[in-house]
Fold each of these.
Amino acid sequence: MQITKLTPDEARAVSEMVARACGYFRAIVDQFRAMARDLIETVRHLGEYLRRLGITPAAAGPSRPAWVSPYGPPQRRRR
């Protein structure tokens, strides 16, 4: 493989292509950001709606203390 320097015209063309690609990526990121904001707002409204209906989400956690295992007491060790 031989490494050569770019001519000024080639360097200019590469620079323009990189700038164009950065613009495309920036537009994509902006669209994803807007989509994420809309999704967050929708989930927030859904949570408010479920709370008004009296439905608590599963993420609210179990109705037992954290130290109580759902599987019962620990097994005794055999020696």
Amino acid sequence: MRVLEMWVDPEQRGADEGRMWDLETEEPAAEIPLSRPAAPRAACIVPLPDGHHAVAIATAREITLWNPHTWTCTNRFDALQTDAMTAFPQSDATWLLATGSGTGLRLWDPRSGRLVHTLLTAAPVTDIVHTLADGPLLHIGGPAGRASLRWRPRTHAS
């Protein structure tokens, strides 16, 4: 998969699409229709069990998953106030979406759109990354500081 960047023209508030750019060729890769308000708040690549990938895009109201070869929407689910998002590996070779918002951290099954876990925090979560060096860790950050969380997932049904 090529490196992609999501872009919405800030002058077009309420626009109905975003543009994916191929950063290798510096050419537009696709126009993506988004729900209003359209501005993407977060995006990440999600590995799928079949060895392929999806592109997850969060707007103010929902998360959509897109096939990066055809740019068709493969899943859509409600997820309000997503400010940050990353894919997070599980022990059963699946991945969850970790999202941050003004109220905390949420973990989603991207295949079903099911909310798997919620962690309420005393401050907004505006940044999320995962590392695997010392076991699976989620690192969250925001205006109040940073924290590292060890997640010992149980296999979850989709």
